[in-house]
Amino acid sequence: xxxxxxxxxxxxxxxxxxxxxxxxxxxxxxxxxxxxxxxxxxxxxxxxxxxxxxxxxxxxxxxxxxxxxxxxxxxxxxxxxxxxxxxxxxxxxxxxxxxxxxxxxxxxxxxxxxxxxxxxxxxxxxxxxxxxxxxxxxxxxxxxxxxxxxxxxxxxxxxxxxxxxxxxxxxxxxxxxxxxxxxxxxxxxxxxxxxxxxxxxxxxxxxxxxxxxxxxxxxxxxxxxxxx
Length: 228
Known about the structure:
11 helices; two-stranded antiparallel ribbon; 8% strand; Glutaredoxin
């Protein structure tokens, strides 16, 4: 299996696709396609029928949607950490993953993921205020907090993640959202912050963040932190 990903500091969907591959336990290789380079558009057209990444290439197939990648991997490795073992929990995990997959456009647009950047404070006032006050952003964040709270209340008693002790693809879907809270200094309820911290502290997420740091050193930290 070969996974084509984008820049680790900013590509939310490739982060999720990479985490799905890791959670499957299957062997795979990766190739990074930086979308801002002169040859990026041509290379993207070669590898992706939709013009988007990530792309998982396996057995002659090119799978381009992150959720589809997770389901494909689950079929290859049922019982892996992609989904919970219990059917009702697994159904709930698919529901909350699908909600993240299809919604929250306002917070994505206002608070793009950047694992290197930290939003500055000027004259004692967080400069994220205008971003958080854009239409729909606070409602999005409130809904995310509700999903975390309700899911953990129902399924997370035995561990720090949405479904307890196992970090699943549902957590992987929300890891970029957890990173936004850190990047933009977003105030959330203590239980939401605790979950976000646990999510960002998972070894696989830390491995991805470490890769983002490596890329920032290679490209130039100031250039990476300046976008977007």
